[in-house]
Model the fold of this input.
Amino acid sequence: MKNNKLSGYARWLILLSSLLLFAVLFFPIWQIQLAAPQYPEGLVLLIYANKLAGNVDIINGLNHYIGMKTLHTADFYEFTILPYIIGGFGVALLIVAAAGKRWLLNLVFVLFVCFGIIAMIDFWRWDYNYGHNLNPDAAIIVPGMAYQPPLIGYKQLLNFGAYSIPHIGGWMFIGVGVILMILVVLSWTEHRKWIKKFKPVSNALAIALFLSLSSCNTGPQPIIIGKDVCDFCKMPISDKRFGAEIVTQKGKVFKFDDAHCIKSFMQSPDFKKKKGYDVYFVDYSVDHTLIPAAAAFYLKSDNLKSPMNGNIAAFNNADSLKFVMNTYPGTELIWDKVKMP
Done:
């Protein structure tokens, strides 16, 4: 990029970004997933640019009992204007790609970021109103309890675990923002010689970042003692030394307080259908970090006294296991033996 002109590869990436924004109109942008023992398959609320979808009727039935307003597409003015805003950005990027002007790219990028911030603020306001403005005559009232879903991430609401994360359309939208940000930064830092030498690298970087978003998968999350609840026994996790987690490809995290709970959860008929997940155990020694289950060393000893009597501790290395084994004699196990019924 030189002076006020965009290079050819930048204009092609802007054209790709425009097409992605038009595609966003046909895919869910956001999802709120609800998991509870009485709904082993889970419930999901899908948010498109122009409507709500998913298990809306079932969720409305549950909301009625706790005094939350029912959800209807017609109640949200955002669904009327959002398709036009997203489509407008798509058209604006087509103009930028055709004109090839750097100042136009900068202007559209600033407006795009401002829109993203305003949209997230509006989403938080929507979450807050629905979670706090409850019917005082509801069948189920828990004093001081609010049911505001998380803006992003996980939150425990009574016996439901609520996960709020982007869906396909949301990742496309974020991907466009990443591509535009890279192009704006390069437009301020590159010179013609630098472009000739490193254009293939910067091009590959932009595409790789976008592709990585489409397969984004979060890793394990820290276990918070006294706040996190075991996804099997529904008891607050009270001893971090024996904790464990399952992380799905979509980034959903299930937390457990004991080897007994995670084994029972994995052996349930509904979970056996799942594919593509990672299992982690808390390292019993030192800082209690989460380590991959397949690489861990395990000690089973009745003297360990874990919360649900699984009495299995995981270790990052064999030396740590043998050191603890001097105090708590028991049996050494590998992961394949631990997860057996």
User: Anything to note?
Assistant: The first helix runs from residue 8 to 24. Confidence is low (pLDDT under 50) at residues 191-195, 213-217. DSSP finds ten helices and twelve strands in the chain.
